Automatic annotation (TrEMBL):
The lineage of its organism: Bacteria, Pseudomonadati, Bacteroidota, Chitinophagia, Chitinophagales. Residues 61-177 form the Phosphatidic acid phosphatase type 2/haloperoxidase domain. The keyword Magnesium does not apply. Coiled coil: none annotated. One of its GO terms (molecular function) is sphingosine-1-phosphate phosphatase activity. PANTHER family: AT30094P, SPHINGOSINE-1-PHOSPHATE PHOSPHOHYDROLASE. The chain crosses the membrane at residues 36-53, 59-78, 135-156, 162-180. This is Undecaprenyl-diphosphatase.
Length: 192
C-alpha cells in the first residue's frame, strides 16, 4: 500500500513539475512561494483587524503569529523525524527535477513547512473571519493551495509533502481558531 502511494506521489510530482508546465507558469509560480510577495496581504490584515476590532484585533494578530509559529515548529519536528529527501536532493530523482528556485533547501521534505504554515494561517483566518463573509474567507484556502502547488511545481516538494503539511496546518489552525473564538472572538468595538 505504501509503495503504491509513493509511486503515485512520484508520478503526480513528475506531471506537475515536468508535464503541466509552460514558460508563463515558470515565470509566475516561483514568486507565489516568496513571503514578501504576500506582504500587502499581511499589512491589509494587520490594518483591518486593528481598525475594525481594536484590542481584539491586537489579540487576533498575536494568535495569527502563534498559529504560524506552532505550524512551523511542528512541521520542522516531523521533517527531522521522517527524514525524507526533497526531490531536488534525491539522487534517484534529481536528474528528472526542474528546479525553478535559486537553491534547494537541505532540510527534509515531509512535511512541507510552507504548506503547514499557510494552511494553518488560512484555516485560522477562515474560522475567525467567516462571520463577515464565508466566500471571501474561503479565499484563504485558495491562497494556501496556490502556495502548495508552487512548492511542487518548482521542484522542492512532493505532492504528499504538501498534503501532509496541509493536514497538519488545518489541525493547528482549527485548534488555534477554536481557542481564539471561545476566549476572544472578533466583534466590532462599540463606540459611544
Amino acid at each position: 500500500m505504501l509503495e503504491r502511494l509513493l509511486r503515485l506521489d512520484y508520478k503526480l510530482f513528475f506531471y506537475i513539475n515536468n508535464v503541466w508546465q509552460n514558460s508563463v507558469l515558470d515565470a509566475i509560480v516561483p514568486w507565489l512561494r516568496e513571503p514578501y510577495i504576500w506582504a500587502p496581504l499581511y499589512l491589509f490584515l494587520l490594518l483591518f483587524v486593528t481598525i475594525n476590532y481594536g484590542w481584539k484585533g491586537f489579540w487576533w494578530i498575536v494568535f495569527f503569529l502563534l498559529t504560524f509559529g506552532l505550524a512551523d515548529q511542528a512541521s520542522l519536528y516531523i521533517k527531522e523525524a521522517v527524514g525524507r529527501l526533497r526531490p531536488c536532493r534525491d539522487p534517484l530523482m534529481q536528474h528528472f527535477v526542474r528546479v525553478l528556485v535559486v537553491y534547494c533547501p537541505g532540510s527534509g521534505s515531509f512535511t512541507s513547512s510552507h504548506a503547514a504554515n499557510h494552511f494553518a494561517l488560512g484555516t485560522f483566518c477562515f474560522l475567525t473571519f467567516r462571520h463577515i463573509s464565508k466566500l471571501y474567507a474561503s479565499l484563504f484556502f485558495v491562497w494556501a493551495l496556490l502556495i502548495c502547488y508552487a512548492q511542487v511545481y518548482v521542484g522542492v516538494h512532493y505532492p504528499l509533502d504538501v498534503i501532509g503539511g496541509g493536514v497538519l496546518g488545518i489541525i493547528i489552525g482549527t485548534l488555534s481558531a477554536g481557542f481564539f473564538q471561545r476566549r476572544i472572538r472578533l466583534e466590532p468595538e462599540l463606540t459611544t
